[in-house]
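pipeline/complex-builder :: batch 7 item 3
reading input block
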Amino acid sequence: MKKIVKKLDVLIVIIVLTVALISALIINASFKQGKFVNVQVDGDIVAVLDLNENTQYDVVKNNIITNTVIVENGYVNVVDASCPDKICVNHKRINQTGESIVCLPNKVVITVSDTNGKTEIDGVAQ
Amino acid sequence: MKKTKRISISALCVALAFVLSYFESLIPLNFGVPGIKLGLANIVVLTALYLLPKSDAFVISFIRILLSGLLFSGAFSLAYSFAGGLLSFCVMLLLKNSKKISMLGVSVLGAVSHNVAQIIVAIIIMESKSIAYYLPVLLISATVSGVVVGILSAVVFSRFYKKNNCDK
């Protein structure tokens, strides 16, 4: 067996990490304090919550509450989910534009944004 | 290699990969980002890619994903696993013959392509582009697990190779 690590391997690791770092920086730069929370289920925005207003929202699918979303002190967080992995519940609370919490099993995406996704869609429809 | 030997080695590899998937499902790795995992089963796929004919390695990967998808992670994740498995297999297959890249580099790029494919599928299924924000985190986790898997595979490969002097 030849050497385990070759020059090109090290280069690959460095390149991948650099790409990760650069894309993280770009994403971070685009973040700013958001105003609205768009709750998306199966690709459709089902609710828009105001980030400055403390509320609770239950995502309901087939009469079952799949995810419980709360907005508190300018942050949005998922506190309960019906899926087994609970990845969205473990996700830290978010408040920056572009940040999102995703629940793959229930196909729920919660995104913080500057714009009210619902009125935008209505605007196009008018 | 004789046909019987090929079949039995492939079957053993599937069993081993399957056990590793199970073992992995017992380790709680929950960072709030979907898709972060060790990918221990890739040790078997990667080693098989170097030791067995490529069709066998592909079948091992495919059956492993189907079995562990149905039993451990739930049928919903099968689309993600298949996309990831397929792309990473193709990438690893293409790179494996390169003299300049060892198993470590192949493993890292395999892990990275696995996550990239999963993100693409997630964007299509969830109809939301914001999932792409997870890419940097997933790239870092893929590099770490890729390095670990690559080193382990290289050790397994060299032991296996020495012992059997593999009659391909």
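note: Confidence is low (pLDDT under 50) at residues 121-126 of chain A.
queue -> next item
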